[in-house]
Design goal:
With 382 residues, the chain is mostly beta strands. It has four helices and 18 strands. It has two domains: 274 residues, Immunoglobulin-like; 68 residues, Up-down Bundle (Methane Monooxygenase Hydroxylase, Chain G, domain 1). 38% of the residues are buried.
């Protein structure tokens, strides 16, 4: 029985996440090879769960077919280094904002290793861990020189006076039997945020094109908001092949134009939205973004609302004074987010103008899941 190894390295494409007005912790990626002539990606179900604690859960299930002989493949997952964040560099290759990383292949849980690798943005090359005797954290070097530069997203080689972007790699040994093989991959990671966006989920779809069939034969994307409400958008051009559908809970979907580009805008409450296509060939990398930036021109308080503790509803506030009407609106935002049907005519009219508001006559006022930030809104109005 002939076996051989293929070293795999995932490169994250440059996305809108790399703006200088935000903090970005992790860029998600597929488990895929640089080159593979025998193994095809037949089915993928990608589930991204948006949480209120600033984290997301990623669950990916793959069905792959090995058209060749039994083989052992070294596979990897790349997580781009945090950007605009002062977290210390990890020479062990452990990403500071990834937790609960697991890989189960054909029913067996696999062990994994870590490394620091150069991130070369979609350039195909072999996996090659960096020599950390040579490359040092650029931020830490500059801080030792007396400069206040906490960003550790680059590595520096003093001998060549050169910089390189890097990523933390998680890699493991995977045995592919002839025929069908399954991989179940999960991890939890911290969401990015920035000016005009409460959360952002960059995820690289393009690496899926590196399997032998150069497509995902059967692809399902699920975005979940479990026990919460989320309002977000995705690039319409990536998903023009089919339509998003609300599969669970309450939700709304519409097409939105922003700066002459078309987006799919989604509002969910304790629900799941799903997109499914056959023979999918992604044309770019996905970026799920909170929807407040779609509504820059509407300055009404509550135009966008998110339950996350790091979100400040004052984003769309004109009058900074603590007026009684302002206090009333803020204190009722947590109830509107849960679908409370207002008996007060003024409140009903006010919240009904917002697209994300989905009245739910079945919801009985229950404050058990209110966040600390929401209680602050109710009690203090800020």
């Amino acid at each position: 029985m002939r076996r051989f190894s293929i070293i795999v390295f995932l490169f994250a494409g440059m996305t809108a996440a790399w703006a200088n007005d935000g903090v970005f912790f992790v860029n998600g990626n597929h488990l895929v090879p640089v080159q593979e002539t025998d193994i095809e990606l037949n089915r993928e179900v990608l589930t991204i769960s948006l949480c209120d604690d600033g984290y997301a859960m990623v669950d990916v299930q793959y069905v792959l077919t090995n058209r060749g002989k039994d083989k052992t493949v070294t596979m990897g997952f790349e997580a781009v280094a945090p950007y605009n964040d002062d977290v210390p560099f990890s020479p062990q290759g452990i990403h500071p904002y990834i937790n609960d990383f697991t890989v189960v292949m054909n029913g067996q849980k696999l062990a994994y290793m870590n490394a620091v690798v150069p991130s070369k943005y979609n350039v195909d090359c072999d996996f090659q861990p960096l020599n950390l005797q040579q490359w040092k954290s650029y931020g830490e070097v500059k801080m030792r020189d007396g400069e206040d530069l906490p960003d550790n997203s680059m590595l520096y080689d003093a001998s060549q006076d050169s910089l390189v972007g890097f990523a933390y790699a998680y890699y493991f040994i995977a045995r592919f039997y002839p025929g069908k093989n399954t991989i179940h991959h999960t991890y939890r990671y911290r969401l990015g945020y920035g000016v005009g966006r409460t959360f952002e989920v960059p995820y690289s779809l393009m690496p899926a094109m590196r399997w032998a069939n150069r497509q995902i034969d059967d692809f399902t994307l699920r975005i979940k908001a479990t026990n919460t409400a989320k309002h977000f958008f995705v690039e319409d051009s990536l998903f023009a092949q089919e339509q998003f559908v609300v599969k669970e809970g309450l939700g709304k979907i519409r097409k939105t134009k922003w700066y002459n580009e078309l987006f799919t805008e989604i509002a969910l409450r304790n629900g799941t939205v799903e997109w499914h296509a056959l023979n999918y060939k992604p044309k770019g990398n996905m970026n799920i973004q909170s929807a407040e930036r779609l509504h820059y021109d509407d300055f009404k308080l509550g135009t966008f609302y998110d339950r996350s503790d790091n979100y400040l509803p004052g984003t769309f506030m004109i009058d900074p004074k603590k007026s009684r009407e302002r206090q009333r609106i803020l204190s009722n935002l947590p109830y509107a987010s849960r679908g409370y049907v207002f008996k007060d005519k003024k409140l009903k009219k006010y919240f009904s103008q917002f697209w994300w508001y989905m009245p739910d006559p079945q919801w009985q006022p229950d404050t058990s899941d209110f966040t600390a930030r929401e209680w602050k809104l109710i009690n203090e109005g800020e």
